[in-house]
Structure formats: C-alpha cells, structure tokens
C-alpha cells in the first residue's frame, strides 16, 4: 500500500526525539513508502462540506537535531488522504472536541485513527467508568460534602482534574493534609467540571504500568516508577521506565476492555494500571512505544500500521 497520511499533531520541531510515539509512527510510515503531511489542530478547517488543513509535506529521519524536513505551506482537502492520525496532545478541551466533530465528516472514507466519534465519547478518566470491577474506589463530583465523605471513608486520596493530562494538577492528600478546601477552590476557579477523587493506591510506589493495546489486544507494557518524593509516575515529571510483563490480572483487564476498543475503532490505546486497578484509558495521543520497543526488542509502530492497513482492507471489502 502506498498511502497518503496526514498527521494532526503538535509542532514536529518540539517532539521528544527519544520518547515520542508519533515520531516513530511517522518513520515507519515512510519506510513503507507512505507520503506524510503535517498540520496542527489549529490549522484544521471546515468549509462548504469540505475538511481542509493548512500544513506541509513532511519527511522524517532518525537523526538527532536533524529529524525532519517540511515543505512549503499548502491547503489540502483531507478527504483526499487515506489516513489521518489524530495525535495532538491533550488537554481534552473544547478545541479537542471540535476537532473530532470536524474529522467525523471524512471518517471512515478517510480512516481517522483513532475513530473521532469514539475519541469524543471516551475522555480518559471517564471512559474507565463504563467497565465494571476494574477501577479503584472513585468519586467524580463537585459536591464538597460528597468529597469530604469520600475522604473520611478512604483517608488517603488522590485528587485530580477530570480532563487533565500528563500528571498535571494531580495531588496526593494524606489524612492529616489541610489543603483539600484550598485545592477545591483552585479547581473551581480553573474549570467548571467536577474533579475526580480516588483512593490512594500505595502500589504506585512500585510503578504505574502503561500497557499498549493495538486493535483491542495487549502488545506490550512499560512500568513507570515515580521519583523519590513524587506521587506521579509520568515520565516527563521524572518517572523512571522499567521493563515489565503483564500479570494475570492485567490480562483479565485487557480481555474485559479489548473487544469494546476494537468494536469502536480505537486502534491505538494506552491504559494505565496501578496494582490491580485500571485508572485511565488513553485514546487521544497514547505514548510508550519507544520505551517498550527498547525493553522488549519489538517494533510496535509496525504492528499499529499493520492494524491500520487491515482496517483499510476491511473497509474496501465492505
């Protein structure tokens, strides 16, 4: 297949060369002979029934400090592309949601990965609530009395914004911490959404596991161990990646959610597991490919493109 691929992402010049998953997806696409077109979410437009993007043809190289070349700016009709990768980082705000509405006009004739309708319906901390028996004790609320009652029951809690990402705004409150009221005031001023409160899981000290699922099946995992004195395990705030496999419980979690992910057209998904609990299902711009590749000697980006090609073949036969 010689595919035309558009990548809706953050600026290519600012990526993490050693960690960015979109970068290696692009490299694999070029290795397969696909052509790449790079644009930013803010340069996406809808006009008279057409979905347009102002961007540039892109070439990628695995050369630090010289990893990309961009062509001249041009306006393209995304209906003429074979695949659009929706890979800009969250937050999952109204800008993100608007992009899913616009891209919905061309999907699935142009295959958008992940399915924009499913992405819109699957905010990462809310999506988990649709699967029984996998979450830690959780409260989603703006009700101060409900939050206080939850804390009184579970003592040690995690407080975080419902639509945050990358560990931003995540707080660990021990039973004697007096900052709950101030934190809720701060969250209320920053956003109108409820907050999410969960029982603190001490197992996080041993790591927060990122598991990659491709077309609904687990393909690899990396453990992220928080730095000393840090409650968050995200790698960009100092979490240390470690090689790791899947436990029986994690296999069960993947089996519980995998068929649903596949049915919804969520080809590339990253889930977060602490101890025996699923805490997030990441469908917007999952990461972890490069770390898993290095630890396991695999090439997950090739498996993702195999799944995309299979989806295109199924579509052509339908």
Task: Describe this entry's structure for a reader.
The structure is a single chain. The model has no long low-confidence stretch (mean pLDDT 94). The longest helix is centred in the last third of the chain and has 18 residues, at 300-317. The chain has 9 helices and 17 strands. Strands 1, 2, 3, 4, 5, 6, 7 and 8 form an 8-stranded mixed β-sheet that branches. The protein has a 5-stranded antiparallel β-sheet with strand order 15-14-13-16-17. A 4-stranded antiparallel β-sheet has the order 9-12-10-11, covered by helices on one side. A hairpin with a 2-residue loop joins strand 13 (208-214) and strand 14 (217-225). The chain has 3 domains: 4-116, Rossmann fold; 124-128 and 203-297, 2-Layer Sandwich (D-amino Acid Aminotransferase, Chain A, domain 1); 137-200, Dna Ligase, domain 1, CATH 3.30.1490.20. Helix 1 (21-31) packs across helix 9. The chain is globular, with a radius of gyration of 20 Å. The protein is of the alpha+beta class and 318 residues long. It has helices spanning 21-31, 94-103, 116-120, 124-127, 144-154, 180-190, 248-263, 289-296, 300-317; strands at 4-8, 35-39, 44-47, 50-60, 68-70, 74-77, 83-86, 111-113, 138-141, 157-161, 171-173, 195-199, 208-214, 217-225, 240-243, 268-274, 277-282.
Architecture blueprint of SSEs:
Blueprint: E1 4-8, H1 21-31, E2 35-39, E3 44-47, E4 50-60, E5 68-70, E6 74-77, E7 83-86, H2 94-103, E8 111-113, H3 116-120, H4 124-127, E9 138-141, H5 144-154, E10 157-161, E11 171-173, H6 180-190, E12 195-199, E13 208-214, E14 217-225, E15 240-243, H7 248-263, E16 268-274, E17 277-282, H8 289-296, H9 300-317
Parallel strand pairs: 1-2, 1-7, 7-8
Antiparallel strand pairs: 2-4, 3-4, 4-5, 4-6, 9-12, 10-11, 10-12, 13-14, 13-16, 14-15, 16-17
Helix pairs in contact: 1-9
